[in-house]
Structures
1.
Amino acid sequence: MNRQRGVALLLVLWAVATLSLLLGGLAGWVQLETRQALWQRQHTQALLAAQAGMNLALQALLDGNHRPRWIADGRAVPLAFDAARIVLSVSSERGKLDLNAASNDDISRVAQACGADRDQATQLSRALQARRDGSAAPLRVIEELRQVPGMTQHLYQRMAPEVTLWSGLSRPDAAFASPLLRSALDLPKQTATGTDPGSVLSIDSQAQLPDGVIARLQTTVLLSPSEGSAQPYRVLRWQE
């Protein structure tokens, strides 16, 4: 009888220990889910604030009477939206190197300025030239640059902010070009104030909430894509 009671006691203790482990695991899972849900909510809130910043920039760009006029040379402009702090910058695509229009030499020089060696830069420029000559389709989105022979992840990260597919210019407009492009292509130093930035612009909007959560939105837009269009702009590129 005592032996049976001992066995029963062991079974009860084992069951209690098992239940304790299960409850502890469940509590940890619930806590993890709660943290993830909180982060997701905060990230979504920050992303919405970044989108609001983008819309504020678009409103200013589309309003011909807005003062002061926005200068599309990449300068940072701090703003506030509700409790979020936003940093906005607008860049004209005219100030970037158009990979579908630039010469082999200019592409090679910019690639080397971004860290490529001479052989790598030559391979890259020749591959892009081959696409323009019709052996393959021209680039349609910037991200396709990752797949071009001669490209590496590090080089792509350096080159992506300096290149475009939408200016149609054989060389960047010096008024909107970055210091890197000016140096690599021997462009004259000019002021962007009062210069037409064109209709294709890139907007970088970064929002930070009071709790430190940050979201960044990078878009390229075409202003007034067609007469009578229901939308005053068209998004060409969207990256969160």
Note: The helical segments are 2-62, 104-113, 118-132, 153-159, 179-185.
2.
Amino acid sequence: MQWIGAIIILTVTTWAGFDAAAKFKNRPGHIRQWKNALQMIEAEMVYGQSSLKEVCESISKNLPAPIRNFFLNLVEDKQPCADFSVLWSTQLNKHWPQNALTKNELEILQQFGSTLGQHDLVQQQKQIQLTLHHLDRELSEAMDVCDQYQRLARGIGVLSGLLVIILIM
């Protein structure tokens, strides 16, 4: 009976370690998806002269999950909203647990959302470029720590399970 408990403990802690490692692995990809979305917003708004709703519909059709879900929710939200930045922030907070991103990226995207649709096209393009620059910096940092912390998280998961088993037995 003790062996079954030990196997369960080791399985759970190993799974937790691999789950944490997956977040480190997925973070650069999610940042790239957001960068692609911002570039699409820029192209649609500046060159296509599209409205925010049309931009969100287009992005939701062209990007993979989890970011697709965010833009779908923006389009499908039926609650009356006078300010798009409030809707952006609300949906971003609802969507955030699906991402492997950190609070820094959340703040960058919330700051961008507060300016979206508030300026003329030239200023909007500058805001998009500024946000892309911040996301580039975060992407660089994410890639630096990805391999290191990914292996560390897996190792800690397995080793903590072994430690618990040793202490119990």
Note: Residues 25-168 form one domain.
